[in-house]
Amino acid sequence: MVLATVFESGLSMEYYLILSSILFVIGVVGVLTRKNAIILLMCVELMLNAVNLLLVAFSNYHGKADAQIFVFFIMVVAAAEATVGLSILVLMYRNARSVDIGLFNKLKG
Amino acid sequence: MSTANDYLPILIQAGVAIGFVVLVLVVTHVLGPKLNSKKKDANFECGIESKGDARFPVSVRYFLTAILFVLFDVEVIFFYPYAVNFSDLKLEGLLAVIMFVAFFLVGFFYVLKKGALEWEK
Amino acid sequence: MDALIVIFLSGLISLFIAFAKKPVLVLLTSTVGLLIAIALFIAQWNNPVTLFSYEGLEFTNTALLYSIAASIFALFSILIGYNSYKKQPEHTGEYIGLLMFSLVGAVCMLAFTDMFMFFLGLEILSLPIYVLAGTNKKDLRSSEASLKYFLMGAFATGVLLFGIAWTYGATGTFKIQEIGDFIYNNQNTGIAHSSILYVGVLLIMASFLFKVGAAPFHFWSPDVYEGSPNEVTGFMAAVVKLGAFGAFMKIFGIAFPDLHAFWAPALVIVALITIFLGNLSALNQIHFKRLLAYSSITHVGYALLAVLTLSSNSIENLWIYLFGYGFSIIALVAIAKLLNDDEDKISAFKGLAKRNPFLATVAVLALLSLAGVPPLIGFFGKYLVFADAFTQYPLIVIIALANSGIGIYYYLKTVINIFQKEEIEESKIEVPAIHIVVLSICAIAILVGGLVLSQYKLL
Description:
By secondary structure, chain A is an all-alpha fold. Chain A is 79% helix and 0% strand. Chain B has helices at 8-31, 38-41, 60-74, 79-84, 86-114. Chains in contact: A-B, A-C, B-C. The interface between A and C is large, with 43 and 45 residues.
């Protein structure tokens, strides 16, 4: 069984680094290309979760628990950020009847 | 180093989760009453034009409650590390957690006082 | 950290006192709280013993100096915004409470010793401001500013965290002193020059540049400055910049000074682009707050020179620079608010000298200070930063000086507007008593602050 051998030897560090980098880049590309503000919010959450994965992997690598505590803080802050962000989105939707950031061009000059 | 055996509980959990979903789907299909008729199977069509937007505004109170739930729910994760280290942290840890909960309650009282959880006003 | 607790508690009490629907009480609570906090900060000078302490926060004299400035500017933002806050007595508590909480974050960002407190401070600073930027609920521009600031801020937070994670991976610690020691001890081996660490440093730098609004990452700041209510714009320009630059200085001065050869070239390019872009965009602005925003981008470029130099005086020079900048910008947004022009045009300043000589005097002083005319405080800040940077980067300082010359043009354009005769006869402007006090203090600070501060070596 291939899977069992991978588990037995333990996944090496590079897999985690590559996976979390890919996740992070997907998030960044999403933020830069998408137009719907809710999807932007989700992409930012993806970026934060990529960071969480990276921190947990490094925590295991260094044999220290402090990075895992950091992950807890990131989760809580991400929840607070999502709360504030969604509230701002509701405010925006009430004023503009849309959450498409392409329509937000009142501020220019 | 972790072995394949360590992952057995996860496998069991995954099996239970998938099994439950499949079971419920199948059981409802089998047990549910079925009445077929020609009229019922026909495609639904009518000549009247639809009125209004399908995305009609829901009361903002649902949203408010949901958002507050997210906020208060996630903070609970701080109790996990505390629960694990409960006996090591002694009185100091307890005081810290009491302070944490107290600040939390202050926030909750603020929400109550602001009337965010009142449904009829 | 006694002062920090006082700020937090007075913010919390402000929230609850607002239920009495008496805005004066809220103002009184927050003002008294901030004055006590400033007094406690001053009492802590050279005296590290306090009632409460926590290893994650260390109030060195540097942190105290920056914290005092941040508290003063937060107090001014609350005072000049009071007249618009009290129009909605049910929300006064939130406006003022959020400003206080934001200040708590700024102080955490100035006093941290590890990445935990830095990250938390940054978020506590940012989240209330996202909300405050959108406080004009019916105004689409305000909500747009809020959403833009939020999306950019959240993105920058993600980048920052990714940078912190890579740095942790390379060094195995979150404490900035230990990161610095690790790099210092291994600087001759490959460990301190691994690509993992380099990626971390670059990402952390990029997120800082986002937060302070430096050039390739500046696009949000004019929009956000224009759309936000004036008092929030003042807070963003004064307090957020103090917090962000204080933390920037701290992380790059303590954790990464031995990698200076690696990150300095990137920062040089960023500083140059920032200075040019801010200046050239400011030249043909017709909206006053956009002008301030672009000029603030230029000022960020000058302030980056202090981060680049990293000499023993840089921290104090940067402080004087930002201190002077804060007084000017708060005075200007307060005056722009009193002009009561919905479109916020620079031409609204026309005839101000006739309509209200006091406001005109303060506005001229603030604008000249931003332009860097001696003997105002803005001149001393600029002079100290440039003189310090000149030994290491003579060419860049010369370019920056030339740009200050361009800057004088658009500041003087506004000054000329103030003395011009207005086309339509308008009534005199009523100035509330609070504004007179705040603006007088700003004017005095701008006039004599530079002369006094340059006499002493504070740190």
